[in-house]
Amino acid sequence: MSLPKINPTNTEAWKALDAHFKDLKGLQTKDIFSKDFGRANRYKVEWKDFYLDYSKNRITDKTLSLLLQLAEEVNLKEAIQQQFSGKRINETEDRAVLHTALRDFENMKPEVKATLQKMKLFSEEIIIGSHKGFSGKAITDVVNIGIGGSHLGPEMVTQALQFYRNHLKTHFIANIDGDDVAEKLNNLNPETTLFIVVSKSFTTQETITNASVVKDWFLKNASEIDIEKHFVAVSANVEGAKEFGISEENIFPMQDWVGGRFSLWSSVGLSICCSIGFSNFEAMLKGAFEMDNHFKNEEFGKNIPVILALISIWYNNFYKSESEAVAAYSQYLHKLVPYLQQAIMESNGKNVDRNGEKIGYQTGTIVWGNVGSNSQHAYFQLLHQGTKLIPTDFIGFSEPLHGNTENHNILMANFFAQTEALWEGTHNKTVEISFKSFEGSKPTNTILIKKLNPKNLGSLIALYEHKLFAQGIIWNIFSYDQWGVELGKTVAKGTLTAIENRNFSEIENRSTVNLLEKFLKK
After folding, report:
1. At what angle do helices 76-85 and 454-474 cross, to 10 degrees?
2. Which residues carry out catalysis?
3. Which tens digit of pLDDT belongs to each residue from 111-143?
4. Which of 165, 180, 310, 442 sits at 20 to 30 Å (Cα–Cα) from 383?
5. What pTM did the predictor assign?
């Protein structure tokens, strides 16, 4: 059974939304709360430690009704069931998409259980110091070597959950930039460092090149036999990892049905386990599992990922807002946006639909942002008075982690004030200078969470995973392949050969030839 293949623009709901949008364009929304006292209570969802307020959006009850009708017409419910049941919905790669199975505590696959147990035992040995390096010293530093999903997820989580970290220092080597690798190694002791090489194929150019540089650095102070005490692999290519010199017992498996950008829940999260301990990693999995059940079972009108997906489509496809911002009011979440950029833009940056036809409507949103309140002193000017309409998700927490209530109250006062100011502008206020006028009606979603802990972080990440999936289904695209990423890799092989051989005869693009000639004259 394949995913539904319905062009959304051919649905009755889409046509009705198009007509509704034209009617709504002239509607004054800034004073909508004074005209509709029940709006804030209708446009909210309360779920566990989460409170979603989506009342500050350019929508009416009719808008929501039509958007929900759209979700029904494209068979979103059927698609959700197919994903969770393990159908091969990544049709262009002929794979199932089952990252949710990595955290399914009701029907966990035996291979997932076994991997989690292996991660638990290994990380505990590293944390308590029973795993010794080649000189008999305990491990003090853990380095994750990977790129893309093998890096962005683990780094984002370890940064987000710093409050829960143990004594181990966690580092990440991702970029092929040799200067960055050298800087990282300058601060490490080979006697007390564990390297986790993360590559599903164990052929990823950046990862294997960096791992080889690290191995050479390590062997200046140690012998080949010492590699097994300091190098482990996370990969589906066991033979490739063994050829690199990693012992089979130090290879953590990856499943074919786990995509890279959704893999932090798998053995890719080994660096997370080492950083915060397995119990906290497991709590994160359980938080994601709870969001999975919410997404799978809740009716769409009260379903947080579905509501956020529909609102995003409303702005992207009808208001023609090509981007959306994310402002997380916690410095711990300073790596969230880069993580979401890969998850969302790699998934939904597609221009061919599931029927193989060129798409004539906008898909994929450009995701950007930073943490509050830093963002208020940077790009918020454009949100308030710029010419572009940019819907923004605000993410905040009711409780601070270190107990600094005074700072937290100021932070959250700004959190609430910004969404109000963006919506209200200077409406009904006397403004004598045009430069100080704000038109308002700038849309925001407010996600207020009780506390930043492993469980709630797991739910938050899963929320955005399901949002992007719902969008992809509605846009009639395949969200789980990434052929655009593969193209760049293929071309790079040719340019690398040209650089190494100083021969450009195989390069057809004259601009590239000129650039290579200039580069090699250095």
Report:
1. 120
2. 346, 377, 489
3. 999 999 999 999 999 999 999 999 999 999 999
4. 310
5. 0.97
